[in-house]
Amino acid sequence: MKNKPLSIILCLLLVCxxxxxxxENDKATNKKEKLYxxxxxxxxxxxxxxxxxEETGIDVVYDMFETNEIMYAKLAQDDSAYDVICxxxxxxxxxxxxxxxQELNFDHIPNSKNIGAQYYESSRSFDPENKYSVPYCxxxxxILYNKTMVDETVDSWDILWNPKYSGQxxxxxxxxxxxxxxxxxxxxxxxxxxxxxxxxxxxxLIAQKPLVQAYVVDQVxxxxxxxxxxxxxxxSGEAIYTARENDDLVYVxxxxxxxxxxxxxxxxxxxxNKENAEKWIDFMCRGDIALQNFEYITxxxxxxxxxENIEDEDIxxxxxxxxxxxxxxxxxxxxxxxxxxxxxxxxxxxxxxADY
Amino acid sequence: xxNVLKKLYLALLLxxxxxxxxxxxxxxFNSSKSRAKWGGFTLNWYINLLSDEAVAGAxxxxxxxxxxxxxxxxxxxxxxxxxxxxxxxxxxxxxxGITNIPMINxxxxxxxxxxxxxxxxxxxxxxxxxxxxxxxxxxxxxMLSIMPRIKNMNFYVYEAALDLGASPVYAFTKTILPxxxxxxxxGALMAFTMSLDDFIITYFTKGSGFETLSTLIYNEVKRxxxxxxxxxxxxxxxxxxxxxxxxYRVPSSKTKEKANEK
Amino acid sequence: xxxxxxxSSAGLLSAPYMAWALIxxxxxxxxxxxxxxxxxxxxxxxxxxxxxxxxxxxxxxxxSLRLAVISTFVCFILAYPLGMILSSMxxxxxxxxxxxxxxxxxxxxxxxxxxxxxxLEGKGVINTVLEFFHLPTINVINTGAAIVLGMxxxxxxxxxxxxxxxxxxxxxxxxxxxxDLGANTLQTFLKITLPLSLPGxxxxxxxxxxPALTTFAISxxxxxxxxxxxxxxxxxxxxxxxxxxxxxxxxxxLMVFIILNMIIETIFDKGGNA
Lengths: 356, 262, 274
Fold this sequence. Notes:
Chain B: One of its GO terms (cellular component) is plasma membrane. The structure holds 3 protein chains of 3 kinds. By secondary structure, chain B is mainly α.
């Protein structure tokens, strides 16, 4: 039995190490007021975050997602992982239906009145009583093209199927945006649940695959600026920025129509820092902050004070940043329910795994 | 002639391995953001990198995880390997069988399985979960580099020491442990490398607001590569090169001695 | 073996790891099987596993197998001659060169892949150089070839090391004996060197084939999300589609291939020993 002490000591040592490790880690995370923000990539001016931290003393942990679907999977896994997030319309509807976000207390978000009434009105399509969300940005989806590489007029989604631009086309790597393009091209609704219509769109997307250079999300911007592609499907908010970086880039909304989207701030059901989250939303709604943010990210702001104070008249009156929605047909995505999701997801899987 | 061919083959493979890395290093000094144009020499990307808190944080996280995971897995792996001496063959092969699972299994399955576990136990994903995951996949590397030494070990010296009146602990540290040290060291080194290099398992077990270098780079790639990343890879390459030169100096001089003995 | 006077002390010493392995290896694997074999309502189903037979999924699996086999083969073809060259060199020199080949492994896996992204892109480094010399540009990025290249570059050291080690262990006297007995170079290679290095080849194949089969980062980065591998599908089930059951079911399918690979390896290994 001589060796028993040795083994016991070693065994205890192991346990000690484990406990020490865990305890130390807990200490490190609990020291300061925190706020976990989950937002789209390239969707905020970093200085705005710094300002918020300075003014409130809250430590912001800022993570980015690429698509609504990635955001949803993360949140469904753990609804306390983040406090405040910025999903799009249809996804907010899905989050409400699945009980993953909570009603807001607008008394704590006084600046929410700065958001134009018409944006709250259109929010009703996914948040019927305006109880869950405060609009952050809005816009359309269109085609960004490089004048030097495309010599015909771009006014239809059809051009994305033109073999002339083989290997020069960038498509969105997100199921709803990709299908919106194919469905509208065929004259269907972007919210269709008709399997036949989806099948036609699927066929079209597979036929398009050889022409597509890559399916990307945030990279469309840099690749277009770098002249690596001729045509790309992109959100309107990038139009001003890309035109500023490369004069040859033009944004158009095709005549078949487009998707009009709103990204809004919501607070998660499991939020551990609700007060901080409200402070965050309130801060983002402040006129000066919204303006500063707008000038950096160039995504259309629904903030009336910010809209009035835009200095550059060209941008203030820009049809791209603040389009007249009566000029082209438009619709917003709706949450299509679990069955609808499955229909689209299976079809998208077929597109993505197709040989070309 | 044959020798020339051999050297040529070596050279070609070395070019294949290193040309890409050298290109990255060159690009890290390119003042033009475009990869296609040389815009002149600059150190801006390095300066930007130094002031980039996200990268610094990710680097610290990566190193902390790697060091802690190495320490824990080395201790657990060593202790378990020693314990194996006293176990019967059945239990021994059972433990080795389990130990082999994370080695053989695909990283993606290991990562997913741990993610499911952490979700099930309601452990918030983050530092702790990544550390636990890294220790788990590191222990096999430590054990597999110690076990061969234990199998070939001679216990007579230990018994002789005991017979001569040494205490078991003293006899152990003087006779058995020294034999194990090379295995422990190479196991720890292996664990550290694997931990630094891991992306897939970290990706599935990381939580909100916690990035390691791997996950940070993956995010950056999806958003479009910035030249700062080239600067980062250049720095990492130089650090690794220096470290390896230091580490390999010692064994290479030893092997030389051995070669001379022959 | 008198290190442990009693079995129980050895058992006690191994207890922490046994507990660890139970919690972090066996239970999680059990959970993958649980999720893979149940549906949303928790009842038993094989649907998640049979989904692999659906066209989209099957295509991805076959594509993954094809690319993994090609990459493994290319790695082997490149690594074996290298192993032979290295083992024929002087000891002092070859440790140095072996280190040179492993060194890139110490750089981050994603950085290694990133290098090829930079090189191969439409307006990347290689095409810029080609254009400069007025040569036709290549269009490799976002194709299967780019993914194979990425895999070979990343996993080549995993093939080099075991092959080199097993070749290095071969006693030179055995080869000399074969020569003395009149075997020519080819015969010696086929009858002596190759069989004796088989364990190294086999472990090299496993170490390349499995990560190549299951990767998702390389295909995302070098395939422009145009080429879907089985690893990508599993990743998406968890990170985008939020279908843990299907993701786990597909993981089980993947494990079947890993086990299959192990079985083939053991058969070959035994054949080699006999």
